[in-house]
Amino acid sequence: MLRSVVLCSVIAIAPAAFANDLVARQGGDTIRLVNAACTSQEVLSRVAPQLRAQFRAAQATVDGRSYTACWRMTPSAAHLVYEDGDQGIVPLSALKPQLSA
After folding, report:
1. Structural domain count of the chain
2. What is the 3-state secondary structure (H, E, C) of 6-69?
3. pTM of the shown model
4. Is residue 2 predicted with pLDDT exceeding 60?
């Protein structure tokens, strides 16, 4: 089962470009998309070389476990690739800006 499927919810739309992190939450599970280049060589090694520059950094916490991931925007969702090779999508409607405290 893809980790990101767990995080589907009905939240406001997410902009394609953003200053703050975008977050999808369901219960205690969270996916945080960061607007910074993906630097995880473990994840990038699982991505086609011609697509690597499109991937940004991400972190996920699912069932209490933390995962490093990278993501890229598609027209309707964020496509995630995890350090263990798992992949998933998060619909844009499930993302909201993370507000700073």
Report:
1. 1
2. HHCCCCCCCCCCCCCCEEEEECCEEEEEEEEECCCHHHHCCCCHHHHHHCEEEEEEECCEEEEE
3. 0.77
4. no
